[in-house]
Design a protein that fits this description.
It holds the Pfam family Hydrolase. The chain is α/β, with parallel strands linked by helices and 230 residues long. The protein has nine helices and six strands, in the order βαααααβααβαβαββ. The chain has a six-stranded parallel beta sheet, with helices on both faces.
Length: 230
């Protein structure tokens, strides 16, 4: 008997979970902070990871007391990170391709719920179009008008659930996340959530997850009533 609820639909975060982008974001923010003699600490990283760009900028400026408007920070952050994405192919995170292809092959409905804007999503996924075609739909919280509040609010996951043709109830959805903000959003949406945290995420910030694994394809899917990876 599984201690987890059986689910029928799966929703994925993207940055730091499917795509290895978090290092790029950390470097961009740290670069701006260094100009003012500030340090982008792991505590601030935990508060920012998983939030929409506008909110990330607000938190960074406030927490590090940077002498610049949040709008200016956001513009510079976007310029630095997008400049990298345009020049380099973003790598997939370990186990991501395996799990996504497996669920698609087993006809499990899957979606992406990312805090990225649509243009940022297009830029980051340019080299992985075939993989992202496997998803039933993509919700880009940074620009989607239906997503009123960013993570840690539950909006993005609730919107993602309603866009499946059969509109499953939240308790029938399993979320995959890497960030504490995303985990909180999923829990607030009434969904179970498997966390694949960065090694720098403190143990305390992992406690709200239904389950913590070190690679997407190491998830015991059968515990959630899904076909296991052979």
């Amino acid at each position: 008997m599984s201690k987890f609820r059986h689910v029928s639909h799966v929703i994925f975060d993207m940055d730091g979970l499917i795509l290895d982008t978090e290092g790029v974001y950390k470097n961009a923010i740290a670069t701006i902070a260094r100009r003012f003699g500030k340090t982008y600490t792991s505590d601030i990283v935990a508060k920012i990871t998983g939030t929409v760009e506008k909110e990330s900028a607000r938190i960074a400026v406030t927490e590090m007391k940077l002498p610049m408007p949040a709008e200016e920070f956001q513009h510079e952050f976007r310029s630095l990170s997008h400049g990298f994405f345009q020049k380099h192919a973003i790598q997939l995170m370990p186990g991501a391709r395996n799990l996504i292809q497996h669920l698609a092959k087993q006809n499990v409905p899957i979606a992406v719920a990312t805090s990225s804007s649509l243009d940022s999503f297009e830029l980051k996924t340019a080299k992985h179009k075939e993989l992202f075609k496997l998803f039933d739909h993509i919700v880009c919280g940074g620009t989607d008008p239906a997503v009123k509040n960013g993570k840690p609010a539950p909006d993005i996951f609730l919107v993602a659930a309603t866009r499946f043709p059969d509109k499953p109830s939240p308790d029938k959805c399993l979320v995959f996340e890497d960030a504490p903000n995303g985990v909180q959003a999923a829990v607030s949406a009434g969904m179970q959530v498997v966390m694949v945290p960065d090694e720098n995420v403190p143990v305390e910030a992992r406690k709200n997850a239904t389950l913590v694994v070190n690679s997407l394809d190491k998830t015991p899917l059968e515990q959630f009533g899904l076909p296991p990876i052979k």
